[in-house]
Amino acid sequence: MSNSQSNDHHHSNNLTLDRRNLLIGAGTLFATSSSSSPSPAAAADYPIKLDGAVKRVVVRPRKSRTKAEKEDEEEVLVIEGIEFDRSLPVKFDVYVNDVDDVMGGPDTAEFAGSFANVPHGQRRGSSKTMKTGLNLGISDLLEEVGADDDDSVVVTLVPKFGKGQITVQGIGIKLQG
């Protein structure tokens, strides 16, 4: 278990894992909880309907953090208000890139993780619409793309299944200790 995972576990003893806070990012499992508000992109840009690849410039809470600060607090990409029909399979991939590389596509960006819904049997009387969120730890990824000293990053959402069936209410970044 890495130091950041160990610290996350240490600081969140009451954390319970469910599909709302379990992350699969870059081949690693992370557990998160929502504690502070993320720094959002412009509110006028939302909601976003994922009917194709969508890019947003997202402001970071702090840049040029020390190694000790990075070990104490993970920078977390927060995708809020993911809304879809729970009876349909949906999936989108999340990529992060340096603002200087904004013209590049997902092939030049770094993969941060995926969101997926696998439909299950529907309960009687339950709503077909589901609204949830996704949190992805991105501190190491920001160093890899050379965005550690940048005020903002480019986040790209690429629908894989359920194109046009997914809506996102907001994208931001927060520090989580």
TrEMBL record:
An annotated Gene Ontology molecular function: catechol oxidase activity
Superkingdom: Eukaryota
PROSITE patterns in the cross-refs: TAT (PS51318)
Ranges annotated as spanning the membrane: none
All copies of domain Polyphenol oxidase C-terminal, residue ranges: 47-175
Pfam families from the UniProt entry: PPO1_KFDV
Name of the protein described by the UniProt record: Polyphenol oxidase C-terminal domain-containing protein
Source organism of the structure: Cannabis sativa
